[in-house]
Amino acid sequence: MCCCDKPTINGQPGYKWQPNNPPSIRAVDPPLLDSDDSLIYDEPGRCGGLDAHCHHYCIVKCFGSYYLYARHGGGDVRIRLSLTPTMLETLKSLDTTARYWLLHTIYHAYNKGSETAREKTEQRWRKAAAEKRIKTRKQPGQAVVKVWIEPEKN
After folding, report:
1. Which of 16, 29, 55, 116 has the smallest count of CB within 10 Å of its CB?
2. 60 and 54 in contact (C-beta within 8 Å)?
3. What's the pTM value of the predicted model, to 2 decimals?
4. Number of domains in the chain
């Protein structure tokens, strides 16, 4: 948890990790971009009601699609966005702080949805394994194995 005296953006003076330490500057740590990426928005980590110094977000255009790139302690994440011209104008109309917290919300909603889907899938496969409903079949003449779950018996 940061101990900044006021909301602070990474790369600017004022960052404090411990209450008794003097303010310093937390380094900016953006996600890596590919050579085909065009950077649209770059929003370093920050605080202000919530400590999000470890999350750095970028909006990138690549081959006509838009992506939210995020870097945090767990690494880099890329999320394809369905950005319409109206949504791009909305992002443009926001100041850096509002845009950052919107991107933070999108990232965490995506992350939670992915986590929930993964948990449900794992639970389904564990239950099928316990009930011996997982079936496999090697495809003749191919190095492919078909795997499926048989429906539950009522």
Report:
1. 116
2. no
3. 0.86
4. 1
